[in-house]
Each structure stands twice: as C-alpha cells, then as structure tokens.
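PT: before anyone asks, these are the final sequences, not the draft ones from last week. 1710 residues across everything. Please model them as a single complex and drop the result in this thread when it's through.
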Amino acid sequence: MTGQPGMSFSVALLGKGGAGVITAGDMLLAAAARCGLYGLMIRAVGPQIRGGESAALVRLSSVPVECLDDRFDVVLGIDWKQAEQLLSEIAVDADSIVVTDPAEDAVPHSIAASGAVLRQLEMKELAESVSGGRVNMVALGYVAGLAGISQEAIRHAIEKNIGRKGRQAVDVSVAAAMLGFSRSQRSAAPQTGGGQAGNRWMISGNHATGLGALRGGVRFAAAYPITPATEILEWLAPRLKDAGGTLTQAEDELASINMAIGASYGGVPSLTATSGPGLSLMIEGLGLAVCAEIPLVVVNVMRAGPSTGIPTKPEQSDFNAAIYGLHGDAPHIVVAPNSVTDCVYTTQWAVHLAEATQAPVIVLSDQFIGQAIVVADPVPAISFFTKRKVAEEIPEAFERYAITADGISPMPLPGTAGGQYTADGLEHSAAAKPSGIASDHSAQLDKRARKIADFDYGQHWADIEGAGELAILTWGSTASVVREALQRLPDKVTGRLKLITLRLLLPVRQEDMAAALDGVNRLLVIEQNHTGQLYRFLRAWYDLPADVDTVHRPGPGVFRPGEIATRIDAWCGE
Amino acid sequence: MTGQPGMSFSVALLGKGGAGVITAGDMLLAAAARCGLYGLMIRAVGPQIRGGESAALVRLSSVPVECLDDRFDVVLGIDWKQAEQLLSEIAVDADSIVVTDPAEDAVPHSIAASGAVLRQLEMKELAESVSGGRVNMVALGYVAGLAGISQEAIRHAIEKNIGRKGRQAVDVSVAAAMLGFSRSQRSAAPQTGGGQAGNRWMISGNHATGLGALRGGVRFAAAYPITPATEILEWLAPRLKDAGGTLTQAEDELASINMAIGASYGGVPSLTATSGPGLSLMIEGLGLAVCAEIPLVVVNVMRAGPSTGIPTKPEQSDFNAAIYGLHGDAPHIVVAPNSVTDCVYTTQWAVHLAEATQAPVIVLSDQFIGQAIVVADPVPAISFFTKRKVAEEIPEAFERYAITADGISPMPLPGTAGGQYTADGLEHSAAAKPSGIASDHSAQLDKRARKIADFDYGQHWADIEGAGELAILTWGSTASVVREALQRLPDKVTGRLKLITLRLLLPVRQEDMAAALDGVNRLLVIEQNHTGQLYRFLRAWYDLPADVDTVHRPGPGVFRPGEIATRIDAWCGE
Amino acid sequence: MVRRMSVAAPCKLKASDYKSGTKPVWCPGCGDFHVLASLTKAIAALALVPENLAVVSGIGCSSRIPAYLNCYGFHGVHGRALPLATGLKVARPDLTVICAGGDGDGFSIGGNHLLHACRRNVDITYVVMDNEIYGMTKGQPSPTTAPDWDSELAPGGTGVSPFHPLVIALASGANFVARTFAGDVKGTTRTLAEAIGHPGFSFVQILSPCVTFRPDQREWKNKVHPPPVTFTTDPAQAARRVMTDDGFNIGVLYKGSRDIYGQAVERNAEFERDLDAEFLV
Amino acid sequence: MVRRMSVAAPCKLKASDYKSGTKPVWCPGCGDFHVLASLTKAIAALALVPENLAVVSGIGCSSRIPAYLNCYGFHGVHGRALPLATGLKVARPDLTVICAGGDGDGFSIGGNHLLHACRRNVDITYVVMDNEIYGMTKGQPSPTTAPDWDSELAPGGTGVSPFHPLVIALASGANFVARTFAGDVKGTTRTLAEAIGHPGFSFVQILSPCVTFRPDQREWKNKVHPPPVTFTTDPAQAARRVMTDDGFNIGVLYKGSRDIYGQAVERNAEFERDLDAEFLV
Ligand SMILES: Cc1ncc(C[n+]2csc(CCOP(=O)(O)OP(=O)(O)O)c2C)c(N)n1
Ligand SMILES: Cc1ncc(C[n+]2csc(CCOP(=O)(O)OP(=O)(O)O)c2C)c(N)n1
Ligand code: SF4
Ligand code: SF4
Ligand SMILES: [Mg+2]
Ligand SMILES: [Mg+2]
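LR: through. Structure below.
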C-alpha cells in the first residue's frame, strides 16, 4: 500500500492462459465495488494467442483511481511459467506479499530477490478439494480476504459474473473462493464499506467510448476489427440494433470509413473505430470527409508503433498522424479523452462537434484507456445541443457549399425536395460544381478552416487544475498519471503548479492557451512517445514561455505516478 | 518582354482541344533551343477530358529559366471558345501583342480591355491554302518569327517532332509554318543564336525524375496511374526494361507500394510514384518500410488538395502528410527538388539515401515541376556512392537488426546462405524476433532514428545563395520563382539577403541551419499552401530568429516572380 | 434518426427532368453520354422521385455521372464508391441507391469492394461503364484490357489476362447480373430499370466506348449480340456461360433471390434505460 | 542488379531443418502447426535451398508462419502479402516465393490482391490457412464464416453469404487450384509440393481449424473427403464443380498452363548512352 491517494491496494494475479486470472480479477474488482471501493484493472498478456501467461493487474482504492500504482502490494502466482516478461511490469519490494503454490515451480528469481514476504497457499490442493473447484477462485477468495472484502461481496461478484451458468456453477466457485478466503487475513488494505452497494459503475474505456457515441446520437457504425479497438465495435453491435441503428462489418478499413461517410451523408451520425494501421488506411477517407464536408467520428485507440508495432501495448504516438496525416490543407478536429471515464464525455462531445461542423473528428484514445476497466461513479449524461445544420426548406438559388459567416453551410439530407446536389472530393464552387478556379479554391479552403477555427468549444478544450507560475501540459492516458503524481508531491511544489490537460488537440486554441499560460514562466510537456510529438506541435502553433521542457518516452510500459512525480519534482527544483 | 533575367519572351498559344497548340508549343521550344535559347513550357487545360480549350504557355530566354513570367508578350488564340478560365492565368497589358483570327469569334472582353495591341492573322485561311495544312503550324511559324527563331530551326523542330509520320507530313507542316512565319516580324525578343545547336536538353520534371531514378540505380518500379505523376511511370516503363529491370502495374496504391517493398527486400532498388490521394493510401506501406527497414523511394507529385482537389494544378500542401503522416514514431526521409532540372539530381540522391539508410524516402515534387518542360543545359550524371550495407559474409550470431553505432544494420539479401531472417512490421529484437519488451522497443526506435539523424547529408541539405542579415527560406517549385524575384530586386535589397532553399525537409538539420542562419536577424518563409506548413514545421524544430514572417497562399495558380518580388521588397522595407 | 420513408408519391417526370443541366466534361462521342441518357430514361420509367434517389460514384470519366443527374449525388474517392453506397443504403433504406463508375474504379482499385458488395447483397444497383481503359488518366490498361493492347505504361501489352467482371460478380453472389452496350440505349434503359427494380445487389456492366483512347471500340456496335439463351437462376450455370462466351453477349444473364442485407430494424424503446443500467455493479 | 541465379545445388535437408526453432505463438492444437509441418516436409521433398526460398505473409495467427521457418521471410502488413510476394518474385525470379496467410488477411482486406495476383500469374504459391474466423483478433467472422455463426461483432450471425475462395481464384485465372485439410499432413504435403512445383500462380486453400474460437472445427476431420473426380484443366468446369460441392472436397481441383508474368529480361548494353542522348534537342 502506498501513500496517497486515499488508501490504495494493488494486486497482481498471474497464471498461464486458461487459469482464469482475468476472471478472478474481474470478480475482485466487482466485489470491491460492492464494498464501496473504487478500482482499476488491466490485463497483461504474453505473446501467445492463448495458453501463454497472463496477469490481471488490479488496483483498489477508497478514492477514484485512473492509473496503476508504481508497485504491487500482493502478487499471486497460480503458476510462474513464462512469467518473466510480464514481471517487468510488476514491481515488488520488501513490503510486498508474494503468494505461491508449493505444488508449482518456485517463484522467479526477480521476485525472490526483491525481499518480498513469501506466503505459501495450496491453491491446487484446495481447489481439488471442491468437486469442480478451480484455482482461480481460491486465489480470488484469498486476495479478497487480504483486501478486506466481505464474503457477501465475493458471492455477489461471482453470481453476477457466472450466474448464467446456473446455481451449481456459482456454488462451486463460491465454495472454492471461501476456502481461499479462510486462509487469508486482513492486510493494510483500504477502508472498505464506505460506499454504497449498487451505485458504482464498472466500465472499460472502450465500452465508455461506445456509450459516449450512443449518447451523442451515433446510429451507424462500420467495423473492421483491430486490437485494441475491437471492443468498441463489439459493444456497439447489439446496442446499435436496440437503438434502431446498425453496425456493418466491412471488408477493410477503406470500406469501413467510406461506409460511415455514406451513412452520414444520408443524415445518420456515424462512427468507425480503429488503431494505428487502420488509421493509416483511413487517411484518404478522412480527406474526403473534409472536402465533401461530411460529419464523421473516427476513434483511434493508439498502440505502440510504428507499423504493426506492439498491438497490445499503449503509446501516444499517433498524435502526428491524427493531426497532420491528411494530404492537402485539410482542417479537421482531434480530441482526446484523458481517463477511462472521460471516454464517455469526450466521445459524446466528438459526435457533437462532427455533426455541428460537418467535419471528421478523430478521437485519440489508447490501449491503456481503452482496455482498462475501472470502478467509478456513474457518468451522468450530458445533453449537448447536437444538431447538424440541415437545410430543410430549400430556397431558390440554394448552394450546398455556400460561403457563410461561420463557415458552416446548411446541408440538405437526401429526401429533401429541391436540395439535390453532389457531394464532392474535387474542389468545387459554392454551388457544388467541380472547380479549378483560384477564387473558388481559396473561398472553400477559407470556409472549411473557418468553421473549425471559429467554432465555440467553450471550456471543454482543456481541463485546467491548480495555479502557479509553473505549468504542466499533458493529454490522454498520461494525464491521470500526472494528476496522481501531483497528489503525491508536497504542497510547496504543487502550490506553484498548474496542470493543463488538453482535450482538444486540433484546432489550436491560441487565445485560450494564452489565458491559461498567463503568469506561467516555465512549462513542462509530458507525453508517451519517442519524439515529443505534442511538444513539437505546441512549439509550432502556440506562443510558449521561454523555458519549456519535455518529458517523453515511448511505450510499451505506461507511465507510473512515482516516475512522473520524480521528474516533476526534479524539474521544479531546477 | 520584361526586364531581368536576360531577355525573356513569353508566348501563350490557345485553342480548343485538337487544335494542336501543345504540339506547336513543343515545337516552338525545340526550335528556340536550336537557336541557342533556353525556355520553359507548361500546358493549361480546361475541365473537359478532350475538346476543351487548352493553352501552351511558353517562355523563351537567353538565360536558363525555371518559372513563368508575370505577363505574356504574345497571346495567340487559334480560337477563344471557353478561354475565360484559362485566361485568368495569362496576364496581358498594353505592351502585349494579341493575335487573333478574323474568321473566329472576337477576343474575349478581358483581353480587349487590357489595351494590348491586336493583330489579325488569317490562320484558318492560310492553313487551308496548304493541302493538309493545320492552323497550329501557321501559329507556330508566326510566333517563331516574332521570337526571332530561324526558319531552319523551325524546320528542324517539326522534323524532330513528327518525322516518324514521313516526309510528306513534315513538308506540309513546314509549309504551313512558313506561311505564318512570312506574316510575322521580329519583335523585341531575346537574342538568339548565342547557344550552340544540339547541346541543350529539353526535358520535363517528371522525365527528369525518371532519369534520376535510373541513374540512382532503380531497377524495379510499381505503378498505379495518377495525375500528375503518371508520366514518371510511363517514361520508366520501357527504359527499365532496357536497363534489365521491370515496371509492374499494380491494382492500386496499396499494392504498388508493397510490391516496391517486396522488390527492395530482394535487393533491387525500387520506386513508386503517385500524388496526394495515392500517398494517403501508401501511408501504411511507408510505415512498414520504416519498421522493417527496407529502402524505398516514393515520388509524390503534389497537386492542389485536400482529397481529390484539383488534379491538374500544383500546390505545396502535402508537406505535412509527407513529414508527419505515418502513425507511430516513424523516422524517414523527405526531399524536394527545387526546379525542373533539379529533379534529376534530387531523385538520384533520394535513391542513394534510401539505399544507404534502409529507409523510405519521399520525393516531394509538384505538378508545376513535374509537367513543365524546360530547355536547359544537360544535367551531368553524378556518382553517388549508392550502396546498401549488405551482409555478404554472415557471422556466427548474426542479427539482422543489430544495434550499431551509426544505426545501420547490415542487411542480408535473399540468396545469402545463413542470413535467413524475417523482416517484420511488428516491433522486434535485434535478432528480428517479434518483441513487446520495452528495452527492445526503445533500442530499435533509437536505432531507426539515429541512422537517419546521423547520416552525412553533406551540403545537399539546402542550396544557399547570397549573404546578409535577412534570409528567405523556401522549397520546391517556389524556389525558382523566388530566385528570379531576387534577380529583379535592386542590389541594395538583395545585397542584404540570403536565400536558403531546403532540399532535405526531413530529418531536420539543426546544426546546419544554425550555421546558415548565423548573423540573420529576420527570416521570411515562402511556400504555396493555405496553412504555412513549412513555416510551422520550422517553428517546431528549429531555433529561428525572433522575427519570422510567412508568405503562403494555396494553389491552383503558381507564384509569379513579380508577385514575390513585391512581397519581398515590402518585407525588406518593414 | 432520419429513417423517414419516401413521402412523395411517384411522379411523372420526363427523362430530361432527371438531368442537372451541368455540361459533362466527357469527350464528344464518349459512350458515357449514352449511359446518361439510358439512366435518366430508366429512372423516368420507374417514376422515381429525384430527392429520394442517390447516385454515388468514385473517380474517373464515368464517375462524373452523379453531377449530371438531378438527384442526390456523391462523387467520392477512387475505388470506394461501393462502400459509400453501402453505408448510405444501410443507413437510409428508404432511398433508391445507385452506384456508378468505371472499370478502373470498380475492378482495379475497387475490386475488393465488388466482391464483398456482391456477397453482402445490399439493395443497390451497381453500374460499371466498362471501356477497358483508364480514360481520365489518359489511357492506361485496366483489368478488362486485352493483354496485348499497347500503351505507354505497358509497351507491347500487359501480358495479363483480363478480369471477367460478370463471372466474379456471380461467384461472389450478386443477385442480378447483366451486360449491355451503351450504344443500345433502348436495351440499356430496359436492363437498368429491371436492375434497379430487382431486390438486392444488381450488377450491370455497360460496354461504353472510350472514343479518345480506344477508337477501336467504335467497332463494338457491330460485335454485340443478344445472349443465345435467356437468363438463368443458377449462378453456376450463368458463370459457366459467361466464362465461355465471346464477351459481347448482352442482356440479363442471371437473376437470384437471396435475402437482402440490412433491412430496417425496430428500435427498443427501453434502450436508453438499459444503457444506464448496464454498467452498474 | 542482384539478379543472380540460385547457386547452391539442391540440398538434402530434413523437414525439421527447415524450422527456425522459434516457438510458435499458436494455441496448442491449432491447425497451423500441421500446416507448418506439411510445408517443411514439402520443401524438404523438393530439396529447396533455404536461402533461396522466401515466405511472405500478412497479419494474423497464420501469418506468423515465416518466422517459424528457416528461410528468408517477410511478415508484412495486414492484407498485403500478395503484393509483397509479387514484387519480390518479379525482382528476383531466381527465388522460390511462397505467400501465406489467413482467410481474413487474404479474402477480406486482401481480397483485391487475390483477384489480381490470379490474373497476373506470377510464379508464386499462395497458401491460405482458412479457419473461417479472425483468430488473432479473437473471433470475428471472416468472409468464409457461415452466415448464421454467432459472435459478439455479429450477434446471431452476419447474414452474409460466404466467399468461395476457389471459385474466385478460378474465375480470376489462378493457374493451379487445390484444397487440403491441415490435419491430413500427408495430403497437404503432397499438394503443397505440387503447387510449389507448378509454374505460375498456384493457390492452395488449407482448412486449418481454430481450436480456440471455432472448437466446432474439430469436426472437420470427419467431414473432409477426396473429390469425386480428378482435377480438370477447364476452369469453367472446375468452377462449376466447386460452386456446387459441399466445401469439404480436398485435393487438386484445377491445373492450368497460362503464360507466366515477369520473366527475366535482357539488359540493353547501350541503355546508359541512350538515356543521355534522349533529351538532346
Ligand atoms: C487513389 C487514387 N489513385 C489514382 C487516381 C487517379 N485516377 C483517376 S481516374 C483513374 C482511373 C479511371 O478509370 P475508370 O474507372 O475506368 O474510368 P474512366 O475514366 O475510364 O471512365 C485513376 C487511376 C485517383 N484519383 N485516386
Ligand atoms: C490494417 C489492419 N487492420 C486490422 C488489423 C487487425 N488484425 C490483425 S490479424 C486480423 C485478422 C486475422 O484473420 P486471419 O487472416 O483469418 O488470420 P487468423 O488469425 O485467423 O489465422 C486483423 C483484423 C491489422 N493488423 N491491420
Ligand atoms: S477519355 Fe474516353 S472515357 Fe473519358 S470522356 Fe473521353 S471518350 Fe469518354
Ligand atoms: S486463435 Fe485459433 S487460429 Fe489463432 S493460434 Fe489459436 S487456434 Fe490457431
Ligand atoms: Mg474505364
Ligand atoms: Mg482466419
């Protein structure tokens, strides 16, 4: 258990594929929620498709948490085969408890060398003592006991997770879990029982993204599977049907983005979701949506690149591609959720922005945010005034791409009599006729830039916390880590610090930024990629304080709060 | 005829499709070359596929020219149907001569209003007086006469152009041309006869690009046609065969780039050429070449964007896409020829860089550079030491992606015993095994960045002319315009001015730039796009003088020297 | 959202009322003029309401057709017309959706979408103006070009066998397959009307001469002939027939009756409540 | 440049010598293990020299195969294995080039390249490990998945007819077409060796069960059977046969003898001089 925030307790459950550690982790999280705790879980897997080692990394806390801790209080290995690669992400120390089954291989050297307290638990033997019992349930009961979770909560979590398999299955699992629980003892875990059962959400970032899309009004999605974005599409499939919409599986990403553009041209708010390689294939379609002025949301759940990269690991390295990737001068919008739960809000906002500006909006999520599951307070629905400027009454000399003051031209939907026009990726006149004339080109370029630049993004462009002459600028999944790092630093440091988390990456908000940086004389930019992509972008487009530093390193490991706290502390003292 | 440089004479020949103005323009240029002149021609066309109006814009000069002049000395209309759109690019004034056929419609209002001197020429009648004679030949003879070109040179140019059609055809054309010639009279055109017949080249930028590729050693090209890049591929097709190589037509750009990657993996220097929409489709392949470390040249002949844009017009707006378009951190090289003739050199250099660094190189040409035809001095062949670091002797514990000091790892070519490895777009270890381990990822990211950043680009990174405390920074086709604009400005202005033309856009050359900007206190960046893409890039990556200004406007019209001279003059006086 | 049904009653407009009045960029004599004429006649014969019709295309000379029609149009990017049309029709089943383009657009860069559109069987009509050339880019071989056709890009010919669009369509599951000749405006009109009326994915290959880069195609008018037999409902038989014919058979070759993809679904009135409940733990 | 010819004489290596020793990421019991075994046996039977063999793939479980072989390999991006293989073989005709991957890689995102690779008839062998699923991304329907197969992405099934890989290959001009079952290592080995030996583009569909996401495919071993008749040299007949069979016919179905694309060309010794002369005016 590490100091701030609140009382936090981190558990890693390891085991070979099929051992069920992810299920156990899920249940642990649900049981903790039932006891009024908050929490977060991510899964770490080896390269094997199945049967390799995997780990559930669970963090429980008395206050909301959106990132992993630096170290683990408990590491339980159902077995330790092929665990080496995973263990690099699981720091243990002399305060950690390591739980191992005497029937299995000895704990790996790196763990033994840490000085952690070793506890033996006969998981296999205990599981076998219940007919049909499984080791993962024994493990669940044991760590739940360490975390001070009640038996009732464990039973409830098991029920919820495997209830559909029938009473018998539930009883067997509960019996196995209780055996583990009985061997356990309360450790220095967070205070449970503070919350109220039944008023927490358990949600992954990818599902949160789907929820935001539905709330925003998306009723068509086109899908091509790709790790780590697939769950957005899989979650949406049945729910879109329920909502009276559809999800169509496409043959590739070229098709999926063009299907979404076609549906949106028809008036139906549309989305597709992908990751780096798919984004690269969607670049041409994004440009079409820019030129033909079609609202569109593309969620890009970033993974480590370049190329196929490391599909199961996060990195904030598609920033450049999302901002600058389109050929020609192609104004569009890029937003980024800054926590798992913020996916709901930011995605809903993205739909709003796309519809309102008739432009494509890229949502830059990442593998961490997308696949982490948090226990959090329910995310209230927000009603944006999501409305496309539709031409319903068609005046005499109607022009689809009319030059308007705000740059937004009323768009007739098919079915509207008299509004017939041809949407076009060729440059065109206001009347939607192909045109190579300089004045048409610059009028349309100006209009398309203006509608994005002049739109009212309100206060949503960034989350600003604190005040002071030092500022930290960050985005995406790194933001939660920075937030927690700041909580760990002494007041004399944080009292001088302002945290700016950009939600709107494009267009630039020069005035808002100037206001946010007012009085700031030093700036630190923190991001997870190899070249400092955000830092370079900020230099290009904003007036920054003279003294700007940058912290950036690539994936695959996410930042941890301690690592960032140290960097910030050193920077403040410079 | 406008002042500097040398003596320049600009002629526009207009006529509906099929009237043969382009052929006449070609012959005019060839005839001028024969008389020792230099020159340049571009074709301007209306939207019709065929049968619309087209124009040959020809500029002749006693010194090399690489851009259009501001205005035309002579505008000859075989007819004026649908000429309006083209005329916006053809400025005339009271010093201009406008030649029109009394048998055709009257000259358009915009021309009549210019105060230009109107001359009647019975082109149709004269052509009909020769059996089989054509109006374009009459026009050719007439303007050649105005330009002071000899009859012998006209005959020679016709012979060269249509000689394969037989003696009869040549004689008819010559006869028609001589009729035009006889009506003409010497105008204030450039001094002819200075040069030596037979020692000039007549070459388009696209052909020059092909030549550079062949000289660089390219022996495989994959092709998917797209305006304005197709001529590179069409020129290469038979010549690659001659060189013992091949050109394969692909089904799309996804295939073409991957074919080129496959061929290059096999050890054969490879190239593909495209324009904006095709570049967008090649982004994923470019990332693969980065990660798998495969040499590759992709020529992107820019046209006005976004999306399909204006396919027949230039714009320097794919800068961002070429620099930043790839997902993940994906170091690669981007170069840009800065004149029609420089395409030979820059493309050859690109092949050299790709082969030497085992990375993709994007050559950013544009529609102006690519499709303009110049008469210029022959471009000598340069022998770069173009050699891939090939692993020929395979040591015991060979590693394909070995971490080397210069970042370049010896590459075994298929056929080399013991060198077997799997090239991969997945992140990998030095031994080319897929790896998600942090240390492998950062070692490979560092290596791939280092091999590009630390490579010795010599003095080729930029062309630097002049000296002073003011500097102008530009690139690509805009450079020739700036160069000419500077020649027109008084010495008291240009004496304070340094011109930096970037040939190497990526990687950045911070030290070289610092040296180039030493003593410069004001900088002006000039480029042809809507958002000042180069300007923003410079801000992001270079330390610039405090006072930086930017001149940028989109296509479709190219910059003219007068326009730029005015801007520079005003800026100098600020 | 906007899943309203066609409101206007079928109207009686003349074929010329379906033209937008924009002057085509096509070369004089291009076969695509005939396709435009046939299409407007077919639409008029079906009395389609202009605002409930959408014509979607890619890039190429042929793909310019939407702008010449009085209806909703989308001139997308090269090769992606079918996905555009698919998304539009699935989202707006009330519209009549026609997809149009060239052999380069549809069979080269867009070939994959043809396969999957046939399989998927969305209720759209796909019209390919096949001139065995890339017209717009000035004369490169397309997938239907003969292997020995000489060009700058492939001197002496590509040496590659042509693509059989009808066989591929049949093998992938298209629900209606026909070939017509642009110069036969009457036959093309009839076939287009039938194709549009047929439920599911209908595919019509129109031999449409490129007079500029393939002047030899002026001969097509002497080569085309009706098929020896009437259409079949057996795709294997139809495929065998066209795999062995001379390529100039015109008429309807196959009619199927497969289930259509993407019929309108009923909204679950409780769905918003369910959404909020779903994450509670 | 490097257009050297295979120098080493055919060697006598055991099948196991063609394995790289890297441990596959595949699930225990995956059909792809059998494919790996068959492929190494076929290569050994043909006595191919490891350094003159290249195996190129896309992305998917199946596409991991190059790394498990002792030969030159390229694990490219999803769906683009055939263009990679095409470029390599055209540039280096001296190599034996095999392209391998899954049904998602080859028939969904890569479908267009299959069409055009068949047409082009470059001398490569394309091996598709068809498990009627996207294995790597954890179980989404592929083009060969039955329309009623339930999954998260397509609850209740896609409702879309499956793609017929063999028919498409035949219709597009593949020069050798076969289907095998991974579990039949002997038959697969024999067929792969024949395919690699056959000039031109050979296509082998291997039914290779995904035990993790399609446990039902364990039943395939009881379903497969040799074709009722021997292979044909008539593509129309072959297409008709497979359009009407039960999908479990294994064996060689078609052998063609079309001209191969991209044979080595002779360098013109004068070409450099010609280049310099060409622009002189
Ligand atoms: C991605 C992309 N690649 C290439 C092009 C260039 N291009 C425009 S039209 C065309 C081919 C058109 O051929 P086809 O579809 O047969 O139409 P046609 O002009 O013959 O009617 C090509 C290659 C493009 N616009 N976009
Ligand atoms: C451009 C792109 N889109 C999507 C993916 C995600 N992806 C990886 S493998 C795969 C499907 C693999 O299916 P298949 O080819 O049948 O191989 P299998 O795993 O079944 O052997 C997908 C969609 C990707 N890597 N790249
Ligand atoms: S180039 Fe050919 S296809 Fe294009 S408009 Fe002209 S005739 Fe028609
Ligand atoms: S998921 Fe299926 S295809 Fe992939 S390795 Fe496992 S069994 Fe094989
Ligand atoms: Mg065509
Ligand atoms: Mg598969």
